[in-house]
Amino acid sequence: MATEPLQLIKNLGLSDKAAKVYLACLELGEATVQDLARRAKLKRTTIYYTLEELKDIGAIFQTKRNKKIYFLPEEPANLLKHVRERVWDVERSIHVLEEKKHAIFRKPRLYFLYGPSGFKHVWDMIFQSKQKEYRILTEGVNFLDFVKERYILDEIIKNKKKLGISSKQLIVDSEYAREIVEKDPQENRRSKILPAKYQLPFTEVITKEFVAFISPRWDNTLFVVENEAFAQTRLAAFEMLWEKM
């Protein structure tokens, strides 16, 4: 996690130059354009454009004293509040963009992801898809190749329950798998245990819109097939196996 002040400010959505000017304003408390240019190590012409950006988002405000203009920083906590409000505004109107998306013919996609960030991205896709159920075919322990168990509990399971999402799981028999299955009622899940003789190095997560394949540790690779026909085929195969167990 970034702790450098400049990076923290940029994480709020500011450009590099705007972040430098805002940080300079924080450090100076009250400053003229010349003061800010000197502190941020930027040209005065650049400062003028950047100040407009900062004023537009409420990061700074200006005052006048003795015919001289001074700039003061908004409190960081209040700036974060402004950022959240803008995000909420977008969330309330996101349906407008969603309608545009469905107006375009969606072509099938196959793409690769890597490592823990790729693993987390797959779950973000599931939680953002508004689907209320997914299927999973797994050995169970595979997830621990990418993230710690605490992340699974605090992020995946917590979000799953919050969004009212359920799942059906076929999991290869093991001591760890049985520990997982015992938690089914608390984690919105139904499971059936496959005989231990079956090996499933790849975990498969199946939704109505896409299928994600999560590799074992030594591959450190995930790939997603975003195609409804393929997803429907995998769902049918899963259900056939489920009914035979």
What does this structure look like?
It is a single chain. By secondary structure, the chain is an alpha+beta fold. The chain has 2 domains: 5-77, Winged helix-like DNA-binding domain superfamily/Winged helix DNA-binding domain (Arc Repressor Mutant, subunit A); 109-244, 2-Layer Sandwich (Endonuclease, Chain A), CATH 3.30.870. It has 9 helices and 9 strands. The protein has helices spanning 5-10, 16-28, 33-40, 44-56, 76-102, 115-128, 149-162, 175-182, 228-244, and strands spanning 60-65, 68-73, 109-114, 133-138, 166-172, 189-194, 203-206, 211-214, 221-226. Strand 7 and strand 8 form a beta hairpin. Helix 2 (16-28) crosses helix 3, helix 2 (16-28) crosses helix 4 (44-56) and helix 3 (33-40) crosses helix 4 (44-56). The mean pLDDT is 83.
Summary of the model, kept short:
This protein has 245 residues and is an alpha+beta fold. The chain has helices at 5-10, 16-28, 33-40, 44-56, 76-102, 115-128, 149-162, 175-182, 228-244; strands spanning 60-65, 68-73, 109-114, 133-138, 166-172, 189-194, 203-206, 211-214, 221-226. The protein folds into 2 domains: 5-77, Winged helix-like DNA-binding domain superfamily/Winged helix DNA-binding domain (Arc Repressor Mutant, subunit A, Orthogonal Bundle), CATH 1.10.10; 109-244, Endonuclease Chain A (Endonuclease, Chain A), CATH 3.30.870.10.
